[in-house]
Design goal:
By secondary structure, the protein is α/β, with parallel strands linked by helices. Among the domains are: about 110 residues, Rossmann fold; about 110 residues, Transcription Regulator spoIIAA (2-Layer Sandwich), CATH 3.30.750.210; about 50 residues. Helix content is about 35%, strand content about 20%. The strands form 5 sheets. Strands 1-2-3-4-5 form a 5-stranded parallel beta sheet, with helices on both faces. Strands 14-15-16-18-17 form a 5-stranded mixed beta barrel.
Length: about 425
């Protein structure tokens, strides 16, 4: 069986799905192909994917290129005339084995073969994982991504994701537990629950919730050493999850919030379901559990009509809430969204300046947080070259003897280098 090269852009969900794509392509007998799994969350993400595709074509003139993912779903027309493009698969089609079997029988002469369906009315089918299923294996990695839901029912004015991913659909609990079982059997130490909007898990059913799922996983797999959550919606309550975090240390002390802005007018224009006070209240609850919990956040700057004062409100909120892992995105026009048609689009240089200012704040807050963690005992899941993440998501380099990959070791942070590298030492006798 030929090893299929899948080049992945974008979110953790794409990382999960790339393994499905890889196995489908291999099992179908596809040969001499490179699959590019694209992202469309920003125009920059699409630009990077297109740039990489041009490079791949130039460096691999005899390979057949398959384009899939959100950018393929959103704007497949932009790829159909590229040289050596063998096929384009939409987000529904990329997860269906039959399309790969079909591609294995098709010729390059009539390429590109385009299979991109309408996704809002015809969302992807949920893949139910059986206990014996070996489909989901992340080669060479220590952390496993478990998809718990797909799609999103929210219609934020800036976001193209519902248009390319479809409506919210939750995996069955049985399927999720089977995913976890497979990963634990393969030796993974950390599982990360992922999806488009994991806070919405169970909202399409009568008796399921994210808290219930998290507790079920921890109860079912006592040998699971780490469980981590991906991005969460501040509009929801996490009181039960916070309570569980106090009781079960395997649930990692790390929250990542999709806040997007810290000004009520901007949040309203974005059609977000939370306001400024909701963010502040949630962050206070998180910090009350422990000052060592890391809070990350996604923030968009330069949204249409955002004034200097409104940006400053976001800046002050980040500082007030003690957010330590900041992901800043200059607003990017996404065709088909409400925001793309809004007046008062912000100039590129203003967006860049605001992003620079907020990132600078983020680095200062992160450094302050890391300094507070010095000498405190924690653990690191070693990924490679004696490097890995602490429980509260600080990336460290462990000095001393070489440590085997996929090993969890007790450490304490001892130093921060001038280049920002965080140094840790193993705590002996533990």
């Amino acid at each position: 069986m030929d090893k299929i090269n899948v080049i992945t852009f974008g979110c953790r969900l794409n990382t999960f799905e790339s393994e499905i794509i890889r196995k489908h392509a291999e099992n179908a007998g596809l040969k001499n192909v490179i699959i590019v799994h694209t992202c469309a969350v920003t125009s920059e993400a699409e630009r990077q994917a297109k740039q990489q595709i041009h490079k791949i074509i130039k460096e691999n003139p005899k390979k057949k290129i398959i384009i899939t993912g959100c950018s393929a779903q959103n704007s497949w027309q932009n790829y159909k005339d590229e040289k050596n493009i063998f096929a384009i698969l939409g987000n529904k089609e990329k997860l269906v084995f039959d399309y790969y079997k079909k591609l294995a029988k098709l010729s390059i002469k009539n390429a590109p073969h385009i299979f991109v369906g309408e996704i809002l009315k015809n969302p992807p089918e949920m893949i139910e994982v059986k206990a014996q299923d070996k489909l989901f294996k992340f080669d060479g990695k220590t952390k496993a991504f478990v998809q718990i839901q797909q799609g999103c029912n929210n219609r934020c004015s800036f976001c193209v994701v519902p248009l390319v991913r479809g409506k919210n659909q939750s995996f069955s609990e049985k399927s999720i537990l089977n995913q976890c079982k497979t990963f634990l059997h393969e030796g993974y130490k950390e599982i990360i629950l992922t999806g488009v909007d994991i806070s919405a898990y169970g909202s399409d059913t009568k008796d399921k919730s994210l808290f219930g799922l998290v507790k079920k996983i921890l109860d079912t797999f006592p040998k699971l050493e780490r469980l981590r959550l991906s991005s969460l919606d501040p509009a929801k309550s996490y009181d039960q999850i916070l309570g569980l975090m106090k009781l079960d240390k395997r649930l990692m002390p790390h929250f990542h919030l999709s806040i997007q802005a810290g000004d009520d007018k901007v949040l309203s224009d974005m059609r977000r379901r939370h306001n400024r006070d909701d963010i502040i209240t949630l962050c206070k609850k998180i910090h009350k559990i422990s000052k060592n919990i890391a809070i990350g956040a996604d923030v968009i700057v330069g949204f249409p009509g955002e004034t200097d004062k409104e940006f400053e409100n976001t800046y002050k909120l980040i500082k007030k809430c003690g957010i330590t892992h900041l992901h800043v995105f200059p607003y990017s026009i996404r065709q088909g969204t409400l925001a793309a048609k809004m007046p008062n689009q912000i100039k590129t240089e203003v967006k860049k300046e605001r992003a620079k200012k907020l990132r600078s704040l983020g680095e200062k807050l992160k450094l302050k947080f890391i300094k507070r963690q010095k000498r405190k005992p924690t653990t690191v899941l070693v990924e490679k070259d004696n490097q890995g993440y602490t429980e509260n998501y600080i990336f460290v380099k462990i000095i001393g003897d070489k440590i085997k990959s996929n090993t969890i070791v007790p450490v304490k942070i001892t130093k921060i280098e001038k280049d920002g590298t965080v140094i840790a030492k193993v705590i002996k006798g533990k």
